[in-house]
Specification:
The structure holds two protein chains of two kinds.
Chain A: H1 8-11, H2 14-48, H3 51-65, H4 69-79, H5 89-114, H6 118-126, H7 131-161, H8 173-184, H9 187-216
Chain B: H1 6-14, H2 16-41, H3 46-60, H4 64-77, H5 84-110, H6 113-121, H7 126-156, H8 168-179, H9 182-215
Helix pairs in contact in B: 1-8, 2-3, 2-5, 3-5, 4-5, 5-7, 6-7, 7-9, 8-9
Classes of the chains: A mainly alpha, B mainly alpha.
């Protein structure tokens, strides 16, 4: 093994790496938030919408879940201009991530909604609650508790998946790594450090999600 | 400028064989590695369990793209030359090992403890218990999630295009660079992936429902 490691040149670009990590953080947090809204709307449409809407949502879910994310982002970035929608790389990345996580989120949230027993909703109706109140207090919160683990691991997958956005040169951590190694050719060192940074980001998300669960989603004590 | 003719479309469609071949290679490698990880993860020895947990966490906590890029550059450090095909097959196998290992651990742990106790009362040792008692029962429940992961793996092979392996996605990029009709080309490629993946997804879901009914 004659390879000489030169991590110095990687750490010299620490400001670029940090900026990239922050962009990744922002990109994934934004797509988690918007994706969650899409998923809730989609799950509502799928459980109580008209038949044609359910069909459309099903088609969307199957299409997204059975094609690679890389192709989805190419479609958004290179394909959409053909029908007159032109997006910056960063906007395309955000849109593609939202579309992707939305499809997975709908199925997760629908499973949560279906975990609520009918009697609970009927009890809500009997108490004279408005349908929106029933959804918020009787369906949404207990459903969130039920689906929290799968939803959060989907979010972490999304964060890791955002590295694929470098393929259209959206600004995030992997793209920063590509820039740095194009300058100094220390490919292994750069990608090794960046992989470590992604791992730290994952640990951070795992930590935050566990904290949120402990603090806000604890099951009420059963009597 | 070239235009998108039958030759170009044929070139893209034929590249699906490399996608399939890479998926098969990664699934085979992942099966061997995954079995090892699952056995380590359920082992009586703390050291083995911890090593398996560390491996799984590492691969589930870093992007697959980075894993593939490192699979491309790390062998070079040891003076071993790998081409994009070797790097992609290696990276995807290691990746699949972690995920299949975690899936199969769950399936092994579902087998009731009494089965272990009964078989050890019959004088069976670890390997025979695994082979004749535990694995046959775990196998049945492992099918739906394993097929589900296979779909993930087939989609994941598209990332091999980024390290330069010419499979379906890379072939589409090559043609698109020449004819620039991204909507049609990537649409066609999406459809091809869909045709490969959707039946597997449906099968996985059907088996899962069947199993859920059987165990109710």
């Amino acid at each position: 093994m004659n390879y000489v490691f030169e991590f110095g040149q990687v750490f010299a670009a620490w400001d670029e790496l940090l900026a990239g990590a922050l962009r990744t953080l922002w990109l994934s947090a934004a797509s988690m938030a918007i994706g969650l809204v899409v998923a809730i709307a989609g799950a509502l449409g799928k459980t109580s919408g008209p038949r044609w809407l359910r069909w459309v949502i099903d088609a969307y879910i199957e299409l997204i879940r059975n094609t690679p994310f890389l192709i989805q982002i190419f479609m958004v970035f290179f394909g959409l201009p053909a029908i007159g929608i032109r997006l910056e790389a960063d906007q395309a990345a955000l849109l593609a991530l939202v579309i992707n996580v939305g499809a997975y989120g709908i199925e997760i949230i629908r499973a949560g909604i279906e975990s609520i027993q009918k009697g609970q909703i009927e009890a809500g109706k009997a108490l004279g609650l408005h349908p929106l109140q029933i959804f918020r207090h009787i369906v949404l919160k207990p459903a969130l508790q039920a689906i929290y683990p799968s939803l959060t691991s989907q979010f972490i997958l999304l964060m890791l998946n955002s590295s694929v956005c470098s393929a259209i040169a959206a600004s995030e951590l992997t793209a920063a790594a590509n820039d740095i190694q194009a300058r100094n050719f220390r490919s292994f060192e750069v990608y090794f450090v960046v992989t470590g940074m992604y791992f730290v980001l994952s640990l951070m998300f795992w930590g935050i999600f566990a904290w949120v669960e402990r603090t806000f989603l604890r099951q009420p004590a059963t009597r | 400028m070239r235009s998108l003719g039958p030759n170009e479309i044929w070139f893209i469609l034929l590249a699906v064989r490399w996608t399939l071949l890479l998926s098969i290679a990664a699934f085979a490698g992942g099966t061997v590695g995954g079995l090892l990880i699952a056995l380590m993860r359920t082992s009586r020895f703390k050291g083995l369990r911890w090593a398996a947990i560390a491996y799984i966490k590492l691969f589930q906590g870093t992007p697959l793209l980075m894993q593939l890029v490192l699979a491309f550059f790390v062998p070079g450090i040891f003076g071993i030359d790998v081409d994009p095909w070797g790097a992609a097959a290696l990276g995807l196998s290691l990746h699949a090992s972690a995920f299949l290992g975690e899936i199969w651990r769950g399936c092994i742990e579902v087998v009731p403890k009494g089965q272990w106790e009964a078989s050890s009362a019959l004088g069976l040792r670890y390997w025979n218990q695994m082979r004749h008692i535990v694995v046959p029962q775990a196998f049945r429940i492992a099918i739906p999630p394993t097929v589900g992961f296979l779909v993930q793996l087939i989609k994941a092979t598209s990332l091999a295009s980024i390290i330069g392996f010419v499979e379906l996605t890379r072939a589409a990029q090559v043609i698109n660079n020449a004819v620039f009709q991204p909507f049609t080309i990537f649409g066609l490629v999406a459809l091809t992936y869909f045709i490969v993946c959707w039946p597997l997804s449906l099968y996985s879901r059907r088996m899962e429902q069947k199993l859920a009914l059987a165990t109710r």
